[in-house]
Amino acid sequence: MLKIIKQENRLLLEYRPDRDGADWIDNDLQAKGYVTIRRVFTFGAHHLVQEDNEDHPWEGDVRTFVLGHADGEFYQIERDILGLKHDLLLHKEMTITSKTFIATRDISIFRKIDRLIDEEIVIGGDAEGSVPIDEFVSLLNNFPTTTELTHYANARISRSLQDYFGTMSDAQKKLDSFLNRKRTIKTPSRVGFLKEYEPRKFEYIRDELNNLLKESEGYDEKDWQKLIVNFLLLIFPKYIAVLENLHIKDFYAKPGKVTPRYIDFTLVDADGTVDIIEIKKPFSNCLLSKRKYRDSYTPKMELSGSVMQVEKYIFHLQKWGRDGERAILEKRKDELPSGLEIKVTNPKAMIILGRDSDFVDDQKFDFEIIRRKYANVIDIMTYDDLLRRLDNIISMLVINHARLDTLPKKKSGLAVKEDD
Fold it and tell me: pLDDT, tens digit, for every residue of 235-278?
């Protein structure tokens, strides 16, 4: 059992082993000079608090260590205790428990964070660069549980083996079942088939996208992008081809030299005009800041960085000019219809990232302002936008097909003369 205790001038960790007593702790401290608790905390002998345990509810098996010392509004925890590159600062107002430090399967939360950054971790307070307490709590709540980790592993295994064992999602089975039923009709009406098939097609895409979003953490970004690309030409029918890893030239990075760049996905429409699409994983907290700046929510780094990235792609495509059009066509002509010419004519970009389903009204308003700022060049779309778009397409298809059914039928050109 592990307990964190706040004191005015220090932060203590009390630990009682579940079994075998505490002798192994004393032995490690004596033999090695340090002991590691739950694969997360490493204490030296100088961190051990010698206390009279006669009145302690855990009796003689408990060992108490100094985890941190008070430093103004914060508790400061030495980097070596948690295996970090810098000392950790935790605001005194935050609730601090073992779950603040330890995730499922004894994963060190702060060590995971520390591997991704190269600066001091500060939780709470108003200093620039500090993580708000509520955001940190949200991070803890979103750390995968043991069950989730098992599901992610199963999902990865299933995707790896589905080509060999025929594993399919429910949405795939629904579409296949529908198409099989259509094959049993001997003389189908072509118009009738389309009236039923078109909504079903978009329902399939919507259901499949919903299923993928539920498992998105089980994919790395490359795998995720390839899955979403499969739906692009269906959702955006103006495009006829997707070019992956398109090579372009950067004439500005190094004066006098040409730097190769690669666009992950480039869309080509029926006239050969190219646009850019940037696909990010659907992280739920990557669009807007949680705290307002002068009464407005500002774009987070994931959003502003994606915008900057596609703006540079557009810039380099345009600067490459006619030579670039010919170079792209020469290298990728096998992926395009015969006779189609590539045209770089004021290319636009589309960014698909993040979720907005949990936005409050103010966030929705500010996010729309940000989108409209770039609307002449960049279409910023969330995965919830995609789902809403699909729902609207399905609804309008159903409405339009119903209207067609109510139109008066064209009369035959052969009139039958009635008897006198």
Answer: 888 999 999 999 999 999 888 899 999 999 999 999 999 999 99
Each domain of the chain, given as residue ranges in start order, spans 2-143, 219-402
Cβ(298)–Cβ(371) below 8 Å: no
Rounded to 10 deg, the angle between the 170-183 and 190-214 helix axes is 170
What pLDDT, on the 0 to 100 scale, is given for residue 10?
Answer: 94
Which two structure tokens, joined as six digits, stand for 326? 């010919």
pLDDT tens-digit map of 274-306:
999 999 989 877 899 888 888 899 999 889 999
Nearest to 39 by CA among 94, 101, 96, 92: 101
